[in-house]
Amino acid sequence: MSTSATEREQRAPVSGPASTARSPRERWRALPSPLRHLLLAALALVVVTGLLLVTGDLTALRFAAVGYTMLSIAGLQLLVGGSGQVSLGHGAFMMIGAYTMALLVGNLPMLPLSANLVLVVVVATVAGVLVGAATARLHGPYLAGATLILAVGLPGLTHRYHEFLGGSNGLTVRTAGAPPFLQGLLSASEWKALVVWTTVVIGLAVLATVSTGRLGRRMRAIRDDETAAAMSGIPVGATKVVAFVIASAAGGLAGGLQVYVLGTATPSIFTLALSLTLLAALVLGGIGSMWGALWAALAVVYLEIWLSDAVRAFSLSRDVENNLPIVLFGVLLILVLRFQPLGFHGILQRLGARLRSGRH
Amino acid sequence: MRTTTITARRGTLAAALALTLAATACTGAGEVAEQDGPDLSVSTGVTDDAVVIGTHQPLTGPAAAGYASISRGTAAVFDHINEQGGIHGRQIDYRVEDDGYDPARTIDVTRKLVIEDEIFAMLGGLGTPTHGGVVDYLNEEGVPDVFPASGALAWNNTEEHPLTYGWQVDYTKEAKIQGEYITENFPDQAVGYLYQNDDVGENSQEGLDQYLTDEVVAREHYESEAPDLSSQMAEFKRSEAEVIVCSCIPAFVALGMLEAASIDYQPQWVVSSIGGDTATLQGLLAQFTKDTDAEGVPADAFLDGLIITGYMPRVEDPDDEWAAFFADIYEEYGEGDTLTNTHLYGMTQAVMFAQVLMSAGPDLTRQALIDALEAQEWQGPGAVPFSSSDGDHGGHQGAYVVQYNEGGETEMIQGARVTDRDGGLIEESDYEPLSPEELVFHD
Prior knowledge:
- The structure holds 2 protein chains of 2 kinds.
- Chain A has 17 helices and 2 strands.
- The longest helix of chain A has 27 residues, at 236-262.
- By secondary structure, chain A is mostly helical.
- The two termini of chain A are 25 Å apart.
- Chain A has one domain (3-359).
- The model of chain A is unreliable at 1-19 (pLDDT under 50).
- Chain A has helices at 3-10, 12-18, 22-30, 33-54, 57-82, 90-107, 113-135, 141-160, 162-165, 188-212, 214-224, 226-231, 236-262, 272-285, 291-312, 318-339, 343-359, and strands at residues 171-172, 264-265.
- Chain B has 2 domains: 50-168 and 315-396, Response regulator (Rossmann fold, 3-Layer(aba) Sandwich), CATH 3.40.50.2300; 171-310, Response regulator (Rossmann fold, 3-Layer(aba) Sandwich), CATH 3.40.50.2300.
- Chain B has 14 helices and 15 strands.
- In chain B, helix 2 (64-83) crosses helix 12 (321-333), helix 6 crosses helix 7 (199-208) and helix 9 (250-262) packs across helix 10.
- The longest helix of chain B is centred in the N-terminal third of the chain and has 23 residues, at 2-24.
């Protein structure tokens, strides 16, 4: 979980093609970090668009799910991996974003999506400031406990304000598909997946910029040793709150995107299980790097589908069939923690390092 | 100097962000353009010897215990039909996808059914929050959305969802019949409402309140996530309610009965069809009394005298031909578990759907199915008249009233009556369903 590993990873996608010639790589590093991340974001968007064009409607929906889950987990990574604060209530911020989006689309259908997304981020940020300020003095298990309350309690609000938030049936909205001039080219799902990914890569670029910048260094200093960080003049409390707020905003934005794609927000989607799944998946994917969020999101969306399909092929009894995927996920998580604490990304990193040293 | 560059960079970043977002969406996010209706003259999922039907059901998760048996019942009937030669020479290929009662997964599995499995129609998609997320999609894609398994009023909306055909008697109609029954048979007795705090409770009260006014002494609700009714039952006892109308799912009926017994309170229970499956209640009561003081008390001791409204054949009714027919089928094609009214729910749906397919004729298109649904006056297997035409996709039109007696049999205490969801009258109906031999639903 070292600093250098995290920083090196931010450049990993270019190290392949650029490694043969020394100077382009240096020129790349000389670019300002926001620009570098935006370029990478654009590249990622091109890749996703390409993949969308060769796959179908169902894949588009799952791609979109990978996108918003990744954004949410990347926010969590910055918080947990970056600043060392454990949050068990990340799903609650997704819920705040989701309900904000559903209320906006339902009550003010004339607002453009961009405005909705900005408002979602604002609302999630405010919620993050409130919770973050209240929990700034807590750390370790105490912070985990406080955020746990949020994950457990927030869905209850939908019942308390049944008229406004729709109770257990939640809110259902319809969102517009592709603009008229693109309607022949893209299906509604493909368009939504593209919008999601555009937002997600911009969000990730911002997160990556924060993580590699001064703020990120401060967070890591606090994570490694709070006292030493304070002695070096880092405002410990403020930095922790800022990390919490950024993570909340990312989670909220992800929730808003989820509603944009699925068109429904119910309390049963944003349970404690969601918060725990996000954290568990992040550990599985690799908590030390933002790339871990990608593997984590893929695991959340696809692992269960694949495991269920695989289990179904053995024609076991229904009770076994229903529970085996969860058991397998658990076993996988334990194995990863035991043998590869840096997660799936750690495995990739080690393989990469071995390849590189083999070449020299 | 350094601060300026950072500010400038942030400025560029913000500008880039705003530009891209503005470019991705300029029109209102909630303004959905009106589109032409989908093409229904297609035979998606239909071959010469098979027709693919899909559904989403909670096979896992919290709702599985109560509802997983619905699709098992449906599958057993379809197996029977296929054994008899199918429908117009086509075998029914019934695909059940598990959504775990999670609306996000419902959306995923429904797309899978429509895109990968290419289903001809969706039959009995279960749950209000779950099905609510896919009803727009199915209608946009032109997939007939037949008999969603939920009593929400939302399904009967031919303007917005022309391809959705409701099934369950809606909560308001059923509650009106309950309200009338109580005023006629328990005049001037104090009544308490116990309801689930969502559309079930809301719509049920709309119906009950048309007949019950001053008699109502307490209105108590529960949340389906919080299995505790102690304060509610204490309140009913305090306000001396003699009749409790329970617009609840089975788990909360059982819980309420146990709680009432524990505080020595014996009201008359009136339960809606969603919570009135006595076989399920027996199982739950046995489970809940385990390791308590009440262990060993037979479940029937709690259930004796229970009044239930319903609209389908019942397993407890020994004279019902459909119930006997379904019991035989489940014996042969079922999965060996005890047959309950929840199974019968799925089995009734299967027969109903099969007879629609039958009357749609050999040249099967989605339009032919819709025409068949709209064209007929259905005569069974449901125990009350069924509506699927003339802008009314409400499904079952009313309810009967039965009373459960210790020993396992129910007694019909009021025959089928029909009504509307507004202020209309409740009318007796001389409706008689056809018997299993008379009804044509397979080759």
